[in-house]
Amino acid sequence: MARKQVTLKATLAHGEFYWVTNVEADSEEEAVVAAENLFLAEIERIEDWEFTDFEVV
Predict the structure, then answer these.
(1) What's 9's DSSP letter?
(2) pLDDT tens by residue, 7-42
(3) From start to end of the chain, where are the E strands?
(4) 24-42 burial string, b = 16+ CB within 10 Å, else e?
(5) Confidence class of residue 45 from pLDDT cuts 50, 70 and 90?
(6) pLDDT at position 34
(7) What does the alpha-carbon distance between residue 16 and residue 23 come to, in Å, rounded to a whole number?
(8) Alpha-carbon torsion 33, 37, 39, 43, what sign?
(9) 20 to 30 A from 54, CA-CA: which of 9, 16, 20, 37?
(10) Long-range contacts at 33-40 (CB < 8 A, ≥ 24 apart)
């Protein structure tokens, strides 16, 4: 397995959301599934996190 950085993007009604994470996977497809699963696990604990960086232009 190789370490892969995955960026997922969701277009929402009021903006775009990006999830960037690193996973161990043998293929791009496995990497995407692993990244989606990690995001779902994090979103279950949404009350425990906050945005820590921003850019205003």
Answers:
(1) E
(2) 999 999 999 999 999 999 999 999 999 999 999 999
(3) 2-12, 15-25
(4) ebeeeeebeebbeebbeee
(5) very high
(6) 98
(7) 22
(8) positive
(9) 37
(10) 34/6, 35/6, 35/8, 36/8, 39/8
Contacts 24+ apart (CB under 8 A), 31-34: 31/4, 31/6, 32/6, 32/8, 34/6
The pLDDT score that the predictor gives to residue 25 is 98
Q: Which two tokens stand for residue 40?
A: 């779902």
> Residue 1 is encoded by which pair of tokens?
């397995």
Q: Which residues are paired to 11 by β-bridges?
A: 16
Non-local CB neighbours of 3 within 8 Å, separated by 6+ positions: 22, 23, 24
- pLDDT the model gives residue 39: 95
pTM, whole model, 2 decimals? 0.85
DSSP lists the bridge partners of residue 3 as 24
